[in-house]
UniProtKB/TrEMBL annotation:
It comes from Nepenthes gracilis (Slender pitcher plant). One of its GO terms (cellular component) is endoplasmic reticulum. GO terms for biological process: ERAD pathway. This is UBX domain-containing protein. Keywords: Ubl conjugation pathway.
Length: 348
């Protein structure tokens, strides 16, 4: 992923103003009595409010929290909060703008993800600072979004540009990957990386416990058969029809893993590492045999018992492909999900 350094226009560097809410509710106390002073609303021509006012008038109030301020102020807020800036340039006349705003930008999935991980700033592409940023970044198509980090001097670093319509799942996938691959270099993902390391460590511990439990069970079976216990289970492969019933019978759901996969993880070319990303940004990595079917991944996700996960499907990006009911009996090898693959859980 290539970064590029961009110098900000002088007109953007020249002004600073602070506008972080739609108005100020002032309360004054006179002679022991309290009076409500009408809110001080910004004038209609105030450029910081043009984008947000027009956007909410057309698409409603459900959207990411866009800071109504100069772009340089958004950069400063992001620097203070150790986050990256998500920029959206709104082209009012472009045919894809309406559907992108309604079906992607204003969805709960995208709004919650952006509010949790980014400082969002929007501008109108043909006026004010939005026009100057469009001239600086020169988007080839709209809708146009960018992930930006501050740089030394009067410059910014463009970490990612997203041009053209994308689905909510695709947008979150791109932003997630940008944070993981680029955020550390700008000090914006330190807490995220630390949390990721803790989660990976916890997951490894759970997988190790599940493996030792399955190993002990296999050794006990061999002992009952009068055979010498083996060091690792070699005859306990569960077929795809058996695995869901085993989960229902009481095998611990968290850390559940195919017994043989743990024994050969990292050494057998017939193993596929599947990284599953959830809408809340959580990631889970699990090992499967390449001969396992797509339904095995669904069985693993169902065994986790995660709250808020009802009807869903698995989606890969670039190119986008849906692994739904029609692909349940396809093996991971036939689906091309080897030796490593990344899937996004898309709630339906």
């Amino acid at each position: 992923m290539a970064r590029r350094l961009v110098s900000l226009p002088r007109c953007i560097l020249g002004g600073f103003s602070r506008a972080v809410s739609h108005g100020i509710d002032l309360m004054s106390s006179i002679g022991g009595r309290r009076y409500h002073t009408p809110p001080l609303l910004p004038p209609p021509v105030q450029e910081e409010w043009v984008f947000l006012t027009n956007f909410e008038h057309q698409f409603g109030s459900t959207h990411p929290f866009f800071y109504a301020c100069h772009f340089t102020e958004a950069l400063k807020i992001a620097e203070d909060e150790k986050k990256l800036v998500f920029m959206y340039l709104h082209s009012r006349d472009h045919p894809f703008t309406g559907s992108f705003c309604r079906e992607t930008l204003c969805t709960e999935l995208v709004a919650q993800f952006l509010d949790a991980n980014f400082v969002s700033w929007g501008g109108v592409a043909d006026r004010g600072e939005g026009l100057h940023m469009a001239a600086t970044l020169r988007p080839a198509s709209f809708p146009f979004c960018a992930v930006i980090a501050p740089a030394a001097g009067d410059s910014i670093t463009v970490l990612q540009q997203i041009e053209g319509p994308v689905t909510p799942a695709e947008l979150v996938e791109i932003l997630q990957r940008t944070m993981e691959e680029q955020g550390v270099a700008f000090g914006s993902s330190k807490a995220y990386e630390e949390e990721k390391r803790r989660e990976d460590r916890r997951l490894r511990e759970e997988q190790n416990a599940a493996y030792h439990a399955s190993l002990k069970l296999d050794q006990e079976k061999e002992r009952l058969k009068g055979l010498t216990p083996v060091a690792a289970p070699t005859s306990s492969r569960l077929n795809n029809s058996e695995r869901p019933s085993k989960v229902m019978e009481g095998i611990p759901s968290r850390g559940y893993q195919h017994p043989e996969i743990n024994a050969i993880k990292g050494t057998d070319p017939q193993v596929s590492q599947i990284l599953i990303r959830f809408p809340n940004g959580e990631r889970r990595e699990q090992s499967f045999s390449t001969s396992d079917k797509i339904q095995s991944i669904y069985g693993y996700i169902d065994s986790l018992g995660l709250p808020g996960i009802g009807n869903y499907r698995l989606v890969s990006n670039f190119p986008r492909k849906v692994y739904g009911a029609d692909q349940m009996n396809m093996t991971l090898k036939d689906a091309g999900l080897q030796p490593r693959a990344s899937l996004f859980l898309e709630v339906m």
